[in-house]
């Protein structure tokens, strides 16, 4: 499975802000958005580039035009919503499909509770958006859904990934392409990433457990 750990100094700096337990929801959301933009920039490096003709002050010119119609952005609710605006900075016209999954904290299995995929999703590249890849269960369930709907290709961006989640994702969907700001050490006994960020959804939405 193609897996890119983005080692840009700005990403490392911003991730350090997120790892700081003293960082509250407002700054956390802002920085999550900034890293989302940086990861999306990396993940879209091979975006199809066409041309369109414009009139410039010096006459007609063919200029680059990215085809956002070939993509759908797919945040996994809830925490993926915090990641979405940073991706939309770069892809403002890409249609959004959402998949609601909540991890059962006892079994660590994802429970599906909502889904609204863009009607014209078949054949598109899905850009899956979630801050955390822990056991991998949520991402695998989401990609099962996207492939069943006919997505031609799945790229995924995660803030922090656990090695266990990457292995599980590779076993289930080896054709997925992953960009992540960090591959951390391991999961703890409750399925949380170490050192990780804690509960990303709770920190984004200001809902401490
Ligand atoms: C978090 C996170 C992922 C999932 C990762 O969501 O945003 O979706 O856990 O865990 P996994 O890889 O073990 O499946 P959570 O289920 O806590 O829901 P939330 O986004 O509503 O907070
Ligand atoms: N979900 C989170 O938000 N954080 C983790 O470390 C694992 C799952």
Automatic annotation (TrEMBL):
The keyword Iron-sulfur does not apply. Pathway: Pyrimidine metabolism; UMP biosynthesis via salvage pathway; UMP from uracil: step 1/1. Binds 1 Mg(2+) ion per subunit. The magnesium is bound as Mg-PRPP. GO terms for molecular function: uracil phosphoribosyltransferase activity. It comes from the Bacteria. Allosterically activated by GTP. Residues 7-207 form the Phosphoribosyltransferase domain. Gene3D superfamilies: 3.40.50.2020. InterPro entries: PRTase-like (IPR029057), PRTase_dom (IPR000836), Upp_B (IPR034332), UPRT (IPR005765), UPRTase/APRTase (IPR050054). It catalyses: UMP + diphosphate = 5-phospho-alpha-D-ribose 1-diphosphate + uracil. Its cofactor is Mg(2+). SUPFAM superfamilies: PRTase-like. Uracil binds at residues 193, 198-200. Pfam families: UPRTase (PF14681). 5-phospho-alpha-D-ribose 1-diphosphate binds at residues 78, 103, 130-138, 199. Catalyzes the conversion of uracil and 5-phospho-alpha-D-ribose 1-diphosphate (PRPP) to UMP and diphosphate. Belongs to the UPRTase family. PANTHER family: ADENINE PHOSPHORIBOSYLTRANSFERASE, URACIL PHOSPHORIBOSYLTRANSFERASE, CHLOROPLASTIC. This is Uracil phosphoribosyltransferase. It comes from Lysobacter brunescens. The lineage of its organism: Bacteria, Pseudomonadati, Pseudomonadota, Gammaproteobacteria, Lysobacterales.
